[in-house]
Structures are given as C-alpha cells and as structure tokens.
Write a structure and sequence with these properties.
By secondary structure, this protein is an alpha/beta fold. The chain has 27 helices and 29 strands. Strands 14-13-24-23-22-15-16-21 form an eight-stranded mixed β-sheet. A five-stranded mixed β-sheet has the order 2-1-5-3-4, with helices on both faces. Helix 10 runs parallel beside helix 23 and helix 10 crosses helix 24.
C-alpha cells in the first residue's frame, strides 16, 4: 500500500496511523496528546491535517492510513488552524514567557527564581527547557494569544509522596490518565468536572496515596508540561548529561537513563527503548536512585574495630588487618556470604577468593533458595535439562497465564504489566487473588493437582514416552477431586473452564516466585506445578526477586564450594563449625557468632555495625558491572558517577586482599580483565564478548531442553530439603539499606508508620 504525505510517496503495510507514518519518514506533524504505546486520543487537535477528497480536517494521530490517501500537513490553512487551536490551549496555561518577544535573549539575562509557589511563566516552571508545549509553540509560531486568560482551578497538590500536581500547568492532553489506565492498569487518574472547570484528579478528590497509586512515575514521564513533576527535582537545574544503565534494585533489569548535573545524580527515568521495561519503571527505580546513592548510612571509608568501637582507617590498614587475622584461621574455617545485588564480576572474584584463597567449603547465596536454582536442581534430579531463559514480553503474548506469585506490583511490576497486556488481549489469567488461592495456604497444591486431574479426564494424555508418567497417573487416580474443589471453594464447572483454556490455548505460562517454596507443602506444590507444566505443555517462568540471581547461580556452579543458604551459614557459625565470616551479602543474624567477621557492604546496617572490619563497597550506579536478570539476559550496568568517598567495587577490594594474602592469580586491573576470566571459567558466559555492549541481546548459554519428565513428591522433597531460606528477601532492601524503613516517602507507600 502507498500513501502520499506532502508529495512524498510512502509504502507501508499493516494497520497504522498517518502521524506514525509521517514521523517514521522524517515528516513533522506537531502533537501534544499523541504518544507511542497509548491508544489515539485526538484531544489536542494540533495534528489536524488535510486529506484530499475528504471534507474538513482530520487528526493525524487517530486517522488510519489507507492505500491511495493524499495528505497535506503544512498548507497555510492548516497552519492558521493550528495556531488558533494552540491559542485556545494557551489561554488556559501560563503563557507570558511563551509569547514574550524577548524570550530568545531571556536565558542569557534571567535570574533563577523557580522556588516561587506559583508558576506564571516558563522561567518559573520546573519543566522549562524540557516542555513539549514550548517546542510546539516555537514550531507553530504563536506570538500572541487573542483570548482572555483563565487559570485552572485548584492549588498545587503536595499531599502525596514523590511528585507534585499543578493543574494550572495542565493542558488536558490526557496522557497521564491514559498511561495510568492503558499501560499500568491502575486507573487512578481521571478527568474531573466539565467545561472550563475540567482538571485531572482522582475519584472523590482523594490523595493518590489513598487511591491505589503505586507511584511508578509513568504519569510524570508522559506529562508534556510541568503539571506533574518529580518533587526531588522540582528546583534543580536541567541535567547536562545522561547515562544509560541497568536498575540494580530487582531482578527485572530495567533500563534506566540516569540524569546528571556536574557529575551529580539528579534522578533517573526509564529508558524508552532499552531493557525489558520499554519505558516503564517502578517507584524504586524511578524515584529512589539518587537517595540510595547518597543515603546518610553509606559506608564511605574502611572501618576497623578497636577497643570495642568501629573507627575509620586507611585501606592499607584495613586490608592488612584482615589479611593478618585470616592467616591465623585455617583453610575451610571461614564461611562466605554473597549478595544477589552484586555484579557478575564481583561474584566471580568473591567465589574465586573464597575457594582458592580461603579454602571455603560453603558459600551462602540467595540463588540456593531461588526458584531458578530449585527448578534447575529438580531437572537434574529427573535427568532432564529445562529452559530457564525467557523474554518478559512473551508473557504478554501468552494465551493462558497461571500466576503463583504474590504482589507483583511490588515484586515484579514489569511482569505485572505484561499480564495486564495479555488479559486485555483476551488471555485466560489465573492469579492467587482468585478463588481464594494465596501463597500462605495449601490451596496451591490442591488447585494444581485438581487441574491436572480434570485435564486427564478430558482426554489430555501425557506425551508418549514421558518418563515418570506411571507414578504420576497413579497419584492422580488416588486424588480426591471433589474434596479438593470443596476446600478451594471452586465449582467443577469453573475448574473445567480453566482446564479447557489450558488444554486448547497456546502458548501458556506458569509463573512461580520464591513464596511457593516457603509453603508448608513446598515439595508437593513444586511437584504439582512441574507435572502440570509437563502435562499441559506450559512454560515455567521463575520470578526471583534480586538483581543477579541467574548470574550468581551460573557462577556458583563453576566453583567447588557447597552452595548453602544464609541460615545454614549462620547455623554453622553458631555451632563453631567455622571460625570466621566474610559477609559480602545478607546475614540473618545481627550478631554473627564467629571469632572474626568481615562485612563488605555499601550501607551501615545491623550486621556491619557489629563487624570487626567493614569494607565500603560501591553501589550499582558507581561501578561498571554485568548483571543477569530473571530472563537470563546479560546486561551491562554502566558507571553513572564516580564512587562516593573511598568505596571500591567488590572485585577490586577482594583482589587487593587476595594479593596481600599471597595469592598470585588476582592481578585484575579493570572490569574487562575480570570478565575475561569469567568467560573462560563459567560456561554459561562463553559467548559474552570481552567488552559487553549494552545494546547486545545476549542471554546465558543453556543446554538444549530435553523431553519433559514427571516427578514425584519424594524427589521434589529431596531437592527442596535444606535449600530453603526461612525468611523471604524484602524487595525494598538493597545492599544493607531497607528503603522502606529509611525513606519517608516509600515508608508511606508501603503502609509503615513514619
């Protein structure tokens, strides 16, 4: 098909709009309400164009391109029409600066007075320089407003955390309302009142905090003016640099653009094109990056305990102290804890130091009790290789989703968006909130087993030659379906409806998060989930919470030390099986029972406060590193700023310590030199180039999947036993900092008392 825009012939296929075709071919059509990922709204009318043969003018953002259309976008009549429409918009928006004859010289002579309480022009506006309305006024050439000015009602709303709402700057483009509904599925914001009294607000004018808002920041990011603005940045000067990096706070690996001014972090916005998030984020990545890096509890210098008190010392003294004390502890008598927030480079050198220098027999890491780790072990116990790699957008394309995960809006917000996308496309979605299913009840195993039995009764047979099918069929034969349905309070008809969808609609996914492994019947639930997936050809997707679970799991397999949980490590210390502790990760006890305790962390938490030596470690924004997200995607987190104080990357301080202790194979000088050894020692990284490009679409190497085999509860119990952490990891914790306790705004959102 061919369309002509301003005399330019453009070939296209599929369903698209005039404005998308124009922009893809370098033709500018101004707009204030149109935005990718949002349904056409045609509210601002700035994008009106002429289509030859049609009466009047049509909005380019909502008009579907058709074969043979001849479109004009810049005729004198259209320019005049746009100018009049824009004047009407400006009549309800502070416009003194927008139409000022001296605005071209203003930046050179003006003084900064942004802290005024009321915005009457651009020089007072927090969006000055980044406002889309400014650009549209410049493009269209408005230099006068012929209509009387009208200020939208209401004061600036500052009663919610994270951002302010100023209706006097709103142009009613509807972007915030639509992104909240169409993308985030929250429907918190809406249009209130009518006519000249219309504003964007909430039902019954309640604060956002009381309206179900998760403060993801999507509304702030799409606002074309200063109506919605990040409070922490409201009075900052504009950024002078931006750096792309990966959010370090959870396992989704969202791409972020960190905005800087003179080397200082101003804040972060989601990368519209990078990572699995595609322009979306959560409250932590969107609003807490700056506060985390500059938090008052940051450890900025090494500390050594003298006369019962920690005091700051030089790096040389701290390393010498640790080297001397560890030399007096025999091989294998030091336990090591690793963190799921550490980079692959840090984890590789930590594992190498633990095994090659300390002779450690056990290394604690969160991957031991992760869903990915348990599934991998269960596959090995049944003689099969299962795929753990996936792509988050594939969840949004699934036809059936069975989700056994807790509050995804907190733990996996981007995954939750994909579930919403699938549901809006007609997918069958079953979540814990339905039918009384929760991760604290025995209903999970009942539900999964009942679903399997109904599938078998409906004629769904196991794949030919599937190992373990005999015991599996026997267990279901003895399963009391009526009793299970009664306990679940689900009718058989409803369960048959779900089973029919699972049987006939493809692809299907089964989402599991670590909460299922903490159930009283964890082994039974895991076996039931595994067997249902094998029977119905569902893809099991592990949703572990920390930033580098998959990377840590792959690295741990390459070393000889036994992987254990942090609780196991604490028990070994309490029973005096080990004499020393090197804690580069979380520890369940604030008072470790060991002769000598070293803590490598970024924040002074409870354990660091009672350590014998504390090494200051950089955050994910202060060092270059590689992370593997829940998809198995290998991502590079770029260094956004220089390390604060004397903090060092984990690999660097461990290499210095190893050399001080006489090791000869730790002469690392850069992240790339560590990555070189990582690639050669850990098979899963063998296709990672020496220098990773953030734009590369790289995944961990996996062995080809083998035909599914059923498991029995005894086998599952053997895998689960002694591998589960007793307490879940807090999604709001990062490297010793609990952001929900230490940050007032997040504390309000999570419902904790200030």
């Amino acid at each position: 098909m061919i369309i002509t825009i301003d005399g330019c012939s453009i070939s296209f296929s599929g369903r698209t709009t005039i404005i998308k075709l124009a922009r893809a071919n370098g033709i500018t059509i101004p707009s204030l309400c149109d935005l990718p990922r949002l349904e056409p709204f045609a509210g601002c009318r700035i994008c009106l164009v002429e289509v030859k043969g049609r009466k009047g003018y049509v909005p380019a953002c909502s008009t579907i391109a058709e074969d043979g259309l001849d479109v004009l976008t810049t005729t004198p009549e259209i320019r005049e029409l746009r100018r009049g429409i824009l004047e009407l918009i400006l009549a309800e928006h502070p416009n003194a600066c927008l139409i000022c004859a001296e605005k071209s010289a203003c930046d050179e002579f003006k003084s900064t007075i942004r802290k005024t309480g009321e915005v009457t022009g651009c020089v007072l506006c927090p969006a000055n320089g980044s406002c889309e309305l400014q650009r549209v006024v410049e493009d269209i050439g408005v230099d006068r407003v012929h209509f009387p000015s009208h200020r939208r009602p209401g004061d600036v709303r500052r009663d919610d955390p994270f951002f302010d709402r100023d209706n006097s700057l709103c142009i009613l483009c509807g972007r915030c309302v639509r992104v909240c509904d169409e993308v985030r599925g929250a429907t918190v914001l809406t249009f209130v009142a009518r006519g000249s009294q219309t504003v964007v607000g909430t039902a019954f004018d309640r604060p956002l905090l009381d309206s179900g808002c998760q403060f993801c920041g999507a509304c702030v990011d799409v606002c074309p003016t200063g109506s919605l603005r990040d409070r922490a940045r409201r009075y900052d000067r504009p950024h002078d640099a931006r750096k792309r990096t990966t959010c370090p706070f959870c396992g989704q690996g969202c791409g972020l653009m960190v905005e800087l001014r003179e080397g200082r972090i101003l804040g972060a916005t989601p990368d519209p094109t990078g990572g699995p998030n595609q322009g979306q984020a959560c409250v932590r990545g969107r609003f807490l990056i700056k506060e985390a890096v500059h938090h008052r509890t940051r450890i900025l210098k090494p500390m050594v305990r003298k006369d019962g008190r920690l005091g700051e010392v030089s790096w040389d003294e701290a390393i010498a102290t640790v080297a001397e004390r560890l030399a007096g502890i025999g091989p294998g008598e030091v336990g090591v804890a690793a963190s799921g927030h550490s980079s692959c480079e840090d984890l590789f050198v930590l594992n190498k130091f633990a095994t090659d220098v300390l002779g450690a027999r056990i290394i604690a890491g969160p991957w031991t009790a992760s869903v990915a780790g348990i599934l991998e072990q269960l596959g090995r116990a049944t003689g099969q290789d299962i795929p753990l790699n996936f792509r988050i957008p594939d969840i949004g394309r699934a036809e059936v989703i069975l989700s056994f995960a807790a509050d995804l809006s907190v733990t996996q917000p981007i995954v939750r968006l994909e579930i919403l996308r699938a549901a809006r496309s007609g997918a069958t979605v079953v979540t814990p909130g339905e039918h009384g299913l929760t991760l604290k009840s025995s209903g999970v195993v009942f539900f999964l087993a009942a679903l399997s039995k109904i599938l078998l009764e409906s004629g769904k047979a196991p794949a030919a030659g599937a190992a373990g099918s005999g015991p599996f069929l026997a267990s279901l034969k003895a399963f009391n379906l009526e009793r299970a349905l009664s306990a679940l309070a689900i009718s058989k008809e409803k369960m048959m409806e779900i089973a029919q969808a699972v049987k006939t609609r493809k692809p299907g996914v089964l989402l599991l998060e670590p909460g299922i492994l903490r159930l009283a019947d964890a082994a039974g639930s895991l076996a039931a989930a595994w067997n249902l997936a094998v029977l119905a050809d569902l893809r099991i997707v592990p949703l572990d919470g920390l930033a580098n679970i998959r990377g840590g799991l792959a690295i741990a397999r390459a070393f000889s030390a036994q992987p254990v949980t942090a609780e196991d490590l604490a028990a070994a210390a309490a029973s005096k099986k080990i004499r020393g502790l090197y804690l580069a990760g979380p520890f369940p006890s604030a008072s470790p029972a060991a002769e000598f305790v070293i803590v490598q962390d970024a924040y002074l938490g409870e354990t660091a406060a009672v350590a014998d030596v504390v090494f200051p470690e950089t955050t994910g924004l202060e060092s270059l590193g590689t992370f593997v997200n829940i998809e198995g995607r290998i991502q590079q987190a770029d260094q956004a700023i220089k390390p604060r104080g004397e903090a060092k990357p984990g690999w660097r301080l461990l290499a210095d310590l190893a050399i001080k202790m006489g090791a000869t194979d730790f002469g690392y000088t850069s992240t790339d030199s560590v990555r070189h050894d990582l690639i050669h020692r850990v098979p899963a990284f063998r296709h990672l180039p020496g220098t990773a490009d953030p734009s590369d679409d790289l995944f961990l190497q996996e062995r080809p999947a083998t035909p599914g085999a059923f498991v029995d509860v005894k086998t599952a119990a053997g895998v689960v036993e002694d591998r589960l952490a007793s307490t879940p990891s807090d999604p709001d914790s990062y490297k010793g900092l609990n952001m929900a306790r230490e940050t007032k705004s997040l504390k309000l959102l999570r419902g904790r008392h200030v």
